[in-house]
Amino acid sequence: MIAFACRLPRDGFTLDAAFEAGSGVTALFGPSGSGKSTVIRLFAGLERPEAGRIRIGDATLLDTAAGLCMAPHRRRIGLVFQDALLFPHLSVRANLTYGRFFAPARERRIAFDPVVEVLGIGHLLGRRPATLSGGERQRMAIGRALLTSPRLLLMDEPLAALDTERKHEILPFIELLRDAFGIPIIYVSHAVEEVARLATRVVRLEQGRVVASGSPAEVLAPASLAEASSRFDAVSVLAAPVSRFMPDYGVTLLDHPAGQIVVPGRIEAPGAVRVIIRATHVALSVGHPGHVSIRTVLRGRVVALETDAGPFALVTVRLEGGDRLRAYATRLATDALGLAVGDEVQALVKAVAIDAHDLAGARPAAD
Amino acid sequence: MLGLELSAEEWQAIGLSLRVAGVATLASLPPGILIALLLARGRFPGKVFLDALVHLPLVLPPVVTGYVLLVLFGRKGVLGAWFEANLGIVFSFRWTGAALACAVMGFPLMVRAIRLAIEAIDARLEAAAGTLGAAPIWALVTVTLPLALPGIIAGAVLCFAKALGEFGATITFVSNIPGETQTIPAAIYNATQVPGGEAGAFRLSIVAAMIALGALVASEWLARRSGSKARLG
Q1: Which of A73, A130, A148 lies at the smallest CB-CB distance from B135?
Q2: Could you say which architecture CATH assigns to the domain A2-220?
Q3: Which member of A255, A315, B71, B211 lies 3.0 to 4.6 Å from A243 by CB, making a disulfide possible if both were Cys?
């Protein structure tokens, strides 16, 4: 168990956050300037709080009340920076093994070969960091941190400096290492897809304070209409097992209790697949939608409908099976439909808006 | 042959100059790196004062620097007496004194070059080394110093070149004794003061130019070697 509680006044705001994290990926999510990176720096010991306590398992890294502050190099916390920060004067191999040299022999739980294999960097070992692409550098940085056999892996917007294609190249590796090495990860991001895809748990920070924490489905849903300005960041997370792949059309069908979800591409996964649906990509229909192009139609009931003087309405639909789906509509539309709490509705999701990369817990099959 | 053969005395001045400049440079390197580190990365009261003190010989008249050295490091000077009593090193009117004067004059140039090189290194690389388990001293040895190597080489060459050409402070502090403190510039000065000495002054000037040029080329080559590693790396 990881427990963090720190207070640190900064210019403009005071970080005063406390949260707990367990195994898997804990995402620190929030707008820029909300204090996410400060939390990371406090974990790594690059900054000292005014007051605070940080514990990982039975190791206390920081306890200002007891006057204890472990030096950064003794904390054994792996940190992956936004820009990889590889050592330019060392070869890729020497970069990877740099931290191994300092790790106490009995703590070296993570071996070189599996890391190189999982990250797919075997062919790069003899190169110099400057000759690597952005994605390769970031994989290298992850491997370098991993090979110190850290108690905890911190990733500070590791994909922010990469273009979309490179991001999609790295995300599967982060999922793999989450599942393969059993090291808890704290992942900072303001990209909702990354968080929804990777996180076991989400901690939402705003202005230096924790405003919500819990499962991605709970935390990433828009809490209120007041957040309509950030409506493009609001997502719902549904879980559904794969039903079958339709080779003629190149789509995969998922079996959700509320209806079939159509996803482009071929998906193979042993268990349930996480589908991330943006609240702006959901349309609502009272009664059967009739002849429309949308094939993903999910049955449910309106459990909340929030409006104000502005143009938007935020509708929460409780789908059959219990998942909650949020949808933004215009107030004009909800009034025209006469939508009210308790109404049965059909939620329509455009399959083309569901990117195959939005699916967590599954990797697109290589065919 | 063309009247360019060097006399025994001129050879002596050249050998002495190389020894003085070499010792001055090598002895300056450890404190030079340390002070460059302090100025580049340190945060402490009196930093401005230290900075000014290091740069002082650059702006003071060399004769003043030589005089200050004479007062401090002469046999009866506070520091001179201490060095003689405890380490057996005598500076006044010895080649060691010439090396000290050259070191003091070359020091600001050396510190400046190394400091700029250290400041150009992303401090987050050192933080990264720390999170990978490297104690600060290891981060220094494995990251900061290797990355600053081109600057360290440049600083050493600047110091060496300055030491070769140093005249005012040296002659004030340790005089102009052939075979002991008469470096190339002092020998050239001597030659210009005696009738018919122009040929000697000319020969020594050519030698001084050749040594300076050689040092520049060597440093460029070294910096390129270590620099290309860092850039490609």
Answers
A1: A73
A2: 3-Layer(aba) Sandwich (3.40)
A3: A255
pLDDT in tens, A129-174: 989 988 889 889 999 998 888 889 999 988 887 887 778 778 888 8
- Give, in words, the CATH class of A226-364: mainly beta
Cβ separation of B147 and A89 shorter than 8 Å?
yes
- What DSSP character marks residue A360? B
Q: Would the CB atoms of A85 and B124 count as touching at under 8 Å?
A: yes
The reply to whether B129 touches chain A by the CB within 8 Å rule is yes
Which candidate from A89, A99, A103 shows the least CB-CB separation from B229?
A89
Task: Please judge whether B132 and A98 are an interchain contact, meaning their C-beta atoms are less than 8 angstroms apart.
Answer: yes
Q: Global pTM?
A: 0.76
User: What is the 3 state secondary structure string of chain B?
Assistant: CCCCCCCHHHHHHHHHHHHHHHHHHHHHHHHHHHHHHHHHHCCCCCHHHHHHHHHHHHHCCHHHHHHHHHHHHCCCCHHHHHHHHHCCCCCCCCHHHHHHHHHHHHHHHHHHHHHHHHHCCCHHHHHHHHHCCCCHHHHHHHHHHHHHHHHHHHHHHHHHHHHHHCCHHHHHHHCCCCCCCCCHHHHHHHHHHCCCCHHHHHHHHHHHHHHHHHHHHHHHHHHHHHHHHHHHC
CB B15 within 8 A of CB B95: no
User: Residue B117: how many CB atoms within 10 A of its CB?
Assistant: 23
Instruction: Tell me the nearest-neighbour CA distance from A138 into chain B, angstroms.
Output: 14
Q: Which two tokens stand for residue A109?
A: 């739980």
Domain assignments of chain A as residue spans, ordered by start: 2-220, 226-364
Taking contacts as CB-CB distances below 8 angstroms, the residues of chain B near A110 are none
Question: CA triplet A159, A162, A166: central angle to 5 degrees?
Answer: 95
| CA distance to partner chain A, nearest, from residue B133 (Å) | 4
Question: What is the mean pLDDT of each successive set of 10 residues along chain B, which is 233 residues long?
Answer: 71 90 94 94 90 92 93 87 87 89 93 93 92 92 93 91 89 87 89 87 91 86 68 42
A131 to chain B: closest CA residue: B232
A2-41, pLDDT tens digit by residue? 999 999 998 778 899 999 998 889 999 888 888 888 999 9
Structural domains present in chain B: 8-232 (1.10.3720.10)
The predicted pLDDT at position B176 comes to: 86
List CB contacts (< 8 A) between B143 and chain A.
87, 89
Tally A–B CB contacts below 8 A. 77
